[in-house]
């Protein structure tokens, strides 16, 4: 037998783990005497080996009864660390996956992919927790766990920062608020233990973490905070009257009306409301010098703002009001749509001119995704079968309501805000209105455009109008000739 002991058990480290060396080769570490016996048994030592025999075992820094491991505390810390990393991983994947696979723009897809990647990093860190709070067989396990916690702190801080902008309740708040508190605790614990110690190139690791953080911050700031204007919206709208014809049976003029729209911008759009209305204008002839006074009186009486020297008391009568496009349908880039209608007016009309006003309200598809199946269905305000959409005609008139959920194309906005809905109201007797807000249609819709979140979703309205004199219509039909 050699004079040198076969087994050397080193002094416990600060966690209570004792390194075991057989001859000159390290064979592992043990938290307890039982683990030591199991380890030596695997190496062929007898189960009843006398641990107190100095010829067999050399104890350094304490004898066979010195095992200062706090197993309960260590396992609790490991469990909390792993649970936090897994929860943060799930949150990041839930946020990033819809954008990574379905966002319209490249920047939004990159943002989603970064969140999915951060979830993968946290998943790897959660697996490494077992080694770091165990026997630390890998030098880099502490650094990997630290990286996962830093990623969790960064993403949770971003979510919290965005939530503070509006401070609206969302179920995700119950996840990322505790997750942020956990990440602060986890970072404090890892820094206190200097978890990066033991890795071969700590400076390279730190530089990589810094570069990744900057890249992620720039990408998220670009896709979340910055709303690019590189592809502005441009609509081409036309509303034109054609050559009129006299009805051979009834005393009416048939006036052709051509309506046209084209998405000439660089982004597809949803049409959320539209309307074209034909008016007949009538007026009284006056011969006076002071038209300013008449103009003021017209404003006071809530009539037209036109100021003409020989025209007073302008009145506009609605002849017809219809829809051009189905709400919820979209126009792709370059897509155009036209519609032809015939407007009928009496031959002996008192109108001086007829006017048409066309308006289209749209929402950019790169800013939001509309639930078109829900939004396309019109709800009649006068029908009691519509349930929550019903409003007595004496109070609301007769209106069509369109209502549907809209989700921002950056899922970070969706999880830090209350749900948003698009509501469009159309009536032949009133101008069309719309809103994009958290309003979820409980009760009457105010015709005044209430709380609106149109800027975030790129909603806007385009207009076109046209006017033609009745005298010209009569002449073109042959009635006014001669």
From TrEMBL:
Transmembrane helix keyword on record: yes
Keyword vocabulary terms for this entry: Membrane, Transmembrane, Transmembrane helix
Entry's transmembrane regions: 77-98, 110-130, 142-164, 170-191, 203-222
Superkingdom: Bacteria
Protein name as it appears in the record: Uncharacterized protein
Species of the source: Streptomyces griseoloalbus
């Amino acid at each position: 037998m050699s004079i040198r002991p076969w087994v050397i058990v080193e002094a416990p480290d600060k966690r209570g783990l004792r390194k075991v060396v057989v001859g000159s080769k390290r064979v592992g570490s043990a938290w307890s005497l039982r683990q030591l016996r199991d380890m030596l048994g695997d190496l062929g030592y007898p189960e009843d080996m006398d641990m107190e025999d100095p010829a067999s075992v050399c104890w350094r820094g304490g004898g066979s009864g010195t095992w200062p491991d706090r197993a309960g505390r260590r396992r609790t810390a490991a469990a909390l660390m792993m649970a936090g990393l897994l929860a943060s991983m799930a949150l990041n994947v839930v946020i990033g996956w819809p954008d990574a696979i379905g966002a319209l723009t490249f920047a939004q897809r990159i943002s989603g992919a970064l969140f999915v990647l951060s979830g993968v990093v946290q998943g790897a860190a959660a697996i490494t927790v077992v080694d770091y709070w165990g026997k630390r067989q890998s030098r880099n396990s502490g650094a990997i766990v630290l990286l996962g916690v830093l990623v969790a702190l960064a993403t949770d801080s971003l979510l919290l920062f965005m939530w503070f902008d509006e401070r609206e309740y969302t179920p995700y708040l119950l996840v990322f608020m505790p997750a942020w508190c956990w990440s602060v605790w986890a970072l404090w614990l890892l820094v206190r233990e200097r978890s990066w110690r033991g890795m071969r190139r700590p400076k390279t690791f730190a530089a990589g973490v810094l570069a990744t953080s900057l890249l992620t911050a720039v990408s998220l700031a670009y896709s979340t905070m910055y709303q690019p204007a590189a592809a502005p919206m441009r609509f081409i709208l036309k509303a034109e009257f054609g050559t009129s014809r006299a009805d051979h049976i009834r005393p009416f003029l048939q006036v052709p009306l051509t309506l046209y729209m084209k998405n000439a911008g660089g982004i597809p759009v949803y049409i959320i409301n539209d309307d074209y209305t034909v008016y007949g204008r009538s007026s009284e002839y006056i011969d006076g010098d002071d038209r300013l006074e008449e103009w003021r009186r017209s404003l006071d009486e809530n009539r037209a703002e036109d100021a003409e020297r020989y025209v007073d008391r302008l009145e506009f009568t609605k002849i017809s009001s219809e829809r051009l496009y189905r709400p919820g349908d979209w126009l792709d880039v370059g897509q155009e749509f036209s519609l032809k209608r015939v407007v009928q007016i009496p031959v002996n009309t008192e109108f001086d001119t007829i006017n048409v006003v066309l308006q289209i309200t749209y929402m950019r598809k790169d800013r939001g995704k509309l639930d078109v199946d829900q939004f396309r269905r019109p709800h009649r305000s006068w029908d009691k079968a519509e349930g929550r959409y019903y409003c007595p005609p004496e109070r609301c008139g007769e209106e069509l309501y369109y209502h549907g959920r809209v989700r921002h194309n950056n899922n970070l906005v969706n999880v830090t805000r209350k749900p948003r809905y698009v509501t469009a109201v159309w009536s032949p007797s009133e101008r069309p209105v719309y809103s994009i807000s958290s309003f979820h249609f409980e009760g009457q819709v105010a015709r005044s455009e209430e709380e609106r979140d149109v800027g975030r979703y790129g909603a806007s309205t385009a207009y076109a109008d046209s006017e033609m004199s009745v005298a010209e219509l009569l002449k073109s039909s042959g009635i006014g000739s001669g």
